[in-house]
Amino acid sequence: MTDYDNIMHLANPTNTIAVLNRYGFNFQKKFGQNFLIDENIVEKIVREAGVTKDDFVLEIGPGIGTMTQILCENAREVVAVEIDTKLIPILKEDTLRYYDNVTVINEDILKLDINKIVEEKNNGKPIKVVANLPYYITTPIIMGLFENHVALDSITIMVQKEVADRMQVGPGTKDYGALSLAVQYYAKPEIVLNVPASCFMPRPNVDSAVIRLNRYQTPTYDVKNEKLLFNLIKASFLQRRKTMLNSVSNGLSNVTKEDLANALESMGLPKTVRGEALTLEQFVELSNLLAK
Ligand code: SAM
């Protein structure tokens, strides 16, 4: 018998409703609250995240602690960051009270200094992020982790299915865009699970998927100016039906139409090319030419 055998796991409708009723909790749409009620799915996410007793895990948005419980049982240490003040007593006094390896922080993840937590709790070594994300801020959360250079081993997250697709695809598909390029610059994405709406309470209106982003520990590209690369990418997709020449010259003040036209020509690309046709390697080459 493990110490955890007497703990009431939440990942089913009965136990979830019991906790919600005990605290008179009402779901807040503005926080993207859809709680997992399927034990299989919760266990699969933690397994796919590869969490072991060596790991420090950051969970974003623990809700009532459904996945946090399983994370605590598998990780060395867990920090769970939850914005909704009403959920804090549920987590601290009730659902997580038996675990001594978890810290609950009542904060907005977008305002938190995650690097400081990694430094204090994991000596600055790479952490694992595992989360069933609030869908309204999926992109800023992921980009925040990458752009602030948080020491990361991997990010395993539940997102809207179409957002997971967008992170994985390459040029020539309708979903390809700035998010695909940014994610693929920093990490190797892999969709590991499709999750139907019936696994959540309340049911979301969209399909969901779990995607794992394995962070590259050494840079895969030699980039002269990272900021320029990302500004170029963003500007290219601002008006995705326009040619790159038009859309970049509208969106980026420090790149002239002439310089861009010359750079495209030296890469053997037509002047009419659109951003959606370029691979990440080509964006890197283009930004390096413009950085000269
Ligand atoms: N992890 C729980 C589960 O799987 O059942 C809850 C997932 S629910 C989709 C998203 C959670 O993120 C909610 O608990 C919500 O209150 C929280 N949340 C929303 N915005 C947040 C933010 N900016 N910072 C931290 N937590 C946030």
TrEMBL record:
<feature type="binding site">
    <location>
        <position position="36"/>
    </location>
    <ligand>
        <name>S-adenosyl-L-methionine</name>
    </ligand>
</feature>
<dbReference type="InterPro" id="IPR029063">
    <property type="entry name" value="SAM-dependent_MTases_sf"/>
</dbReference>
<protein>
    <recommendedName>
        <fullName>Ribosomal RNA small subunit methyltransferase A</fullName>
        <ecNumber>2.1.1.182</ecNumber>
    </recommendedName>
</protein>
<feature type="domain" description="Ribosomal RNA adenine methylase transferase N-terminal">
    <location>
        <begin position="41"/>
        <end position="217"/>
    </location>
</feature>
<keyword id="KW-0694">RNA-binding</keyword>
<keyword id="KW-0489">Methyltransferase</keyword>
<keyword id="KW-0949">S-adenosyl-L-methionine</keyword>
<dbReference type="InterPro" id="IPR011530">
    <property type="entry name" value="rRNA_adenine_dimethylase"/>
</dbReference>
<comment type="function">
    <text>Specifically dimethylates two adjacent adenosines (A1518 and A1519) in the loop of a conserved hairpin near the 3'-end of 16S rRNA in the 30S particle. May play a critical role in biogenesis of 30S subunits.</text>
</comment>
<feature type="binding site">
    <location>
        <position position="61"/>
    </location>
    <ligand>
        <name>S-adenosyl-L-methionine</name>
    </ligand>
</feature>
<feature type="binding site">
    <location>
        <position position="82"/>
    </location>
    <ligand>
        <name>S-adenosyl-L-methionine</name>
    </ligand>
</feature>
<dbReference type="GO" id="GO:0052908">
    <property type="term" value="F:16S rRNA (adenine(1518)-N(6)/adenine(1519)-N(6))-dimethyltransferase activity"/>
</dbReference>
<dbReference type="InterPro" id="IPR001737">
    <property type="entry name" value="KsgA/Erm"/>
</dbReference>
<keyword id="KW-0698">rRNA processing</keyword>
<keyword id="KW-0963">Cytoplasm</keyword>
<dbReference type="InterPro" id="IPR023165">
    <property type="entry name" value="rRNA_Ade_diMease-like_C"/>
</dbReference>
<dbReference type="InterPro" id="IPR020596">
    <property type="entry name" value="rRNA_Ade_Mease_Trfase_CS"/>
</dbReference>
<feature type="binding site">
    <location>
        <position position="132"/>
    </location>
    <ligand>
        <name>S-adenosyl-L-methionine</name>
    </ligand>
</feature>
<feature type="binding site">
    <location>
        <position position="34"/>
    </location>
    <ligand>
        <name>S-adenosyl-L-methionine</name>
    </ligand>
</feature>
<dbReference type="Pfam" id="PF00398">
    <property type="entry name" value="RrnaAD"/>
</dbReference>
<feature type="binding site">
    <location>
        <position position="108"/>
    </location>
    <ligand>
        <name>S-adenosyl-L-methionine</name>
    </ligand>
</feature>
<dbReference type="InterPro" id="IPR020598">
    <property type="entry name" value="rRNA_Ade_methylase_Trfase_N"/>
</dbReference>
<dbReference type="GO" id="GO:0005829">
    <property type="term" value="C:cytosol"/>
</dbReference>
<comment type="similarity">
    <text>Belongs to the class I-like SAM-binding methyltransferase superfamily. rRNA adenine N(6)-methyltransferase family. RsmA subfamily.</text>
</comment>
<dbReference type="GO" id="GO:0003723">
    <property type="term" value="F:RNA binding"/>
</dbReference>
<keyword id="KW-0808">Transferase</keyword>
